[in-house]
Amino acid sequence: MFGSELREYNGQHYQIAEIEKAVLDYLYFNSKISDEESFEGMRFNAAQFREKANIDKFNLYLNAFDNKALVKRAKKFLTYIQHA
Predict the structure, then answer these.
(1) Candidate from 22-26, 41-45, 50-54, 57-61 with smallest mean pLDDT
(2) What angle do CA 34, 55, 81 make, to 5 degrees?
(3) What is the value of pTM for the model shown?
(4) Phi/psi of residue 78, each to 5°?
């Protein structure tokens, strides 16, 4: 398991996914999302993603999936985010 942080709230500890891993997991499990129209339907806040996400980390996590179809979708997603 990778791409998460241990957090504490009210004395309870839990794992929460980092933004990069959460987006990749979403794209992995939703393989039909693969074009600009479907990215728009996700209603991402592109400016916030660009501000908070680390693209180097995103690509590192993407390589860990070792999934060519996901790589293709993720690259399209990044292009969409850059121009949104």
Answers:
(1) 41-45
(2) 40
(3) 0.90
(4) -65, -40
